[in-house]
Amino acid sequence: MQWNLKLTKILLVTIILVFMATTVKAEVDIKAESAILIEAKSGDIIHELNVDKKWYPASMTKLMTLAVVLDLLEKGQVDLNERVVTSENAASYGGAQLYLEPGEEFTLDDMLKAIIIGSANDASVAVAEHIAGSEQAFAELMNEKAKEIGALNTHFVNSHGLHDENHYTTAKDMALIGQYSLRFPKTLEYTSMQHCEFRKEPATERYSLNKLLWWYPGTDGFKTGTTSAAKRNFVGTVERDGLRLISVVMGVDEPNGHFRETMKLFNHGFANYIFKQFVAKNTVLGQIGIGKGEKDSVDVIAADNLGLSMPKGQDEGFELKLLLKPSIEAPVSKGTIAGELVITKGGSEIKRFELVTADSVQRGSFPRMLGKVLKAVFSITV
Predict the structure, then answer these.
(1) Is the pLDDT higher at 193 or at 375?
(2) Parallel, antiparallel, or unpaired for β 337-345 and 348-357?
(3) How many CB atoms lie within 10 A of CB 152?
(4) pLDDT for 202-243, tens place per residue?
């Protein structure tokens, strides 16, 4: 009887603890006008609050300014070493700034650092004018990019985020902009910088306004935004153990509140989600035949870590299937798509990952091709 009573107490305590753990994982109370937490690769929503509510982004705008420039950089239409000359109009902008003088020059690279690290409005205008001729024309590029990536409840009228009634976005759209920006390696290079020196005379150094770079391990982006109308906003990203999360909080009304609410979102995400890696980057998964090449085959590899983010407790029962092309004709460039890795669970396809060639293969020389033909003829004759 005494043993049964003791066992019953243990079972009750266990049930209560399990219930409490489940409750803590399932709920997160975010004090903001709107908020969202997504898994960066899939875009899956982990938590949401008024995600389609239109709100003023303030200087979070500058993440889209950066994305537009980096897109042009990828296309070869701009160079980070080109000189950006400050106009009188750009130099006149107040708020957070680099105190640029009319005619003062910086490289595009330095201007982008000023925009992201120092949230410099004057640098934002200077870059917009340099790229598109006017800030209005640059804002149109921003709006075109927003539509392209599916941020359909967003409208920009400037490159910096100073208040305008017609300059707005949503938490959901801002998360999409953050997700899009990650395609450019330069994004995290800029947004992870804690400080940067811009001038020696007069000495001008700026420290990032993103305090999570110091406070929350794994943080490497993105951008704060604060005005009296927008209150405090933050779009951020963090990666731990292969799991990358993107968060947005908008309209927080307390000092450092946008960071506090963001950390609550990140804690919630890491408590409930994991990244399950199936294949490590550069792992050789097979070989594919090469027709008319200087060699007859090439290794097929994973170009990145291949895996899926998923809720904890759902990471078992996956199966992997390798699908390689029969062959590819030379010449073949390194990184050419050579097949797919298919992930299934319970008989249903979950995800396909492209696999690529590990090396380049040039077209075979005439003597090599002739030798192969003669070898084939003699082997048939024999």
Answers:
(1) 193
(2) antiparallel
(3) 13
(4) 878 999 999 999 999 999 999 999 999 999 999 999 999 999
- Three-state DSSP class for residue 44: coil
Residue-wise over 121-146: b if at least 16 C-beta within 10 A, else e?
bbbbbbbbbbbbeebeebbebbbebb
Exposed, middle or buried by CB within 10 Å (0-12, 13-18, 19+), for 317? Answer: exposed
In b/e form, how buried is each residue of 59-75, taking b as 16+ CB within 10 angstroms? Answer: bbbbbbbbbbbbbbbee
Amino acid at 256: N
Run of H or E residues at 261: helix 257-272
Q: Alpha-carbon distance 45 to 50, whole Å?
A: 13
d(CA 370, CA 365): 9
Instruction: Return the residue matching tokens 């960071």.
Output: 259
Q: Look at 179 and 23; give whichever has higher pLDDT.
A: 179
Q: Is the pLDDT of residue 300 over 70?
A: yes
d(CA 158, CA 68) in angstroms, rounded, equals 13
Instruction: Judge whether 159 and 65 are in contact, CB under 8 Å.
Output: yes
Candidates 177, 184, 186; CA nearest to 143 is 177
Query: Cβ neighbours of residue 12 under 8 Å, at least 6 residues apart?
Result: none
- Residue 55 pLDDT > 70, yes or no? yes
User: Whose CA is closest to 119, among 225, 199, 255?
Assistant: 225
Question: DSSP state, 101?
Answer: P
Using alpha carbons only, how large is the chain's radius of gyration in Å? Answer: 27
pLDDT tens-place string over residues 364-377: 876 655 565 566 55
Dig out the tokens for 367 from the structure.
Answer: 């003597």
As a dihedral over the C-alpha atoms of residue 374, residue 378, residue 380, residue 381, rounded to 10 degrees, the angle is 140
Give catalytic residues, as residue numbers: 59, 62, 119
Phi/psi of residue 232, nearest 5 degrees: -105, 130
- The SS3 of residue 318 is strand
Count of other CB atoms within 10 angstroms of residue 376: 10
| DSSP code for 267 | H
DSSP codes joined into one string, 207-228: E-S-THHHHSTTEEEEEEEEET
- Take residue 162 and report the two structure tokens written for it: 């100073």
CA atoms of 121 and 126, how far apart (whole Å): 9
- Nearest C-alpha neighbor of 139 from the set 151, 157, 154: 157
